[in-house]
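>> Question from a student workshop board

For tomorrow's exercise we were told to take the sequence and the ligand below, predict the bound structure, and bring the output to class. My setup keeps failing. Could a helper post the expected result so I can at least see what it should look like? The ligand is zinc ion.
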Amino acid sequence: MQKVIKKKRFAPQPEFTERRNYRPPGVTETGLVFVGHEISSDRKVMNQFLHYDQLYTIRHGWNSPFFIGLLDGKIMGTRCPKCGDTWVPPRTHCWNLDCKLEYTEWIEMPLTAKVHTWTVAGWSGRSSLKKLPITLVYAVIGDSKVAIANELHGIDPWDVEFNMPLKIVFKSKEERIGAITDFHFEPADDWSPSPMNAEKERIKKLVEPVYEWVATLKQKK
Ligand SMILES: [Zn+2]
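>> Workshop helper replied:
Here is what the output should look like for this input. Compare the format with yours to find the bug.
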């Protein structure tokens, strides 16, 4: 007779005791519903309107401490207990071959970072149009082995430099929702940009039309 090895396939269900709902008023989950139709005057063509408004649940699983950390105004990363490498965004297992996929442990990271690379966004989704041009950086928080992307505020796009020191600035506790947009980067307090040079002039020229175009958006309201 074959021996049956019983394996626990799923982790036990957590008990959720802390809950906040920041859905905008008027947003309801109605599922899949036909809500109307229109028919052409010759009654040969019909359009039907289907409302498909679903509520999605994102289970962060082992990465949850990172998102809970954001709510608390902290950057949580992970560290390998064997080799000491750290990561933000977090990794649940060490990537070094010698560590044989060792489970990592959670650590609070410093609220300081360095620019790894950066770009200037001249176009965006509707919610950010009036903020253009947006400076986006990949920044290394603390001694993380990987970089994380976010907005860089408080600096002209042409003044950004590789490796420049940054600080992490969180929204107020009331505004935070446990998403990456709960914080942004700003230049470190003791840092100031280098004098204008040819490369900076080139970038300034490139983003000028974006500033002009955004100004017209602001006028229209
Ligand atoms: Zn390791």
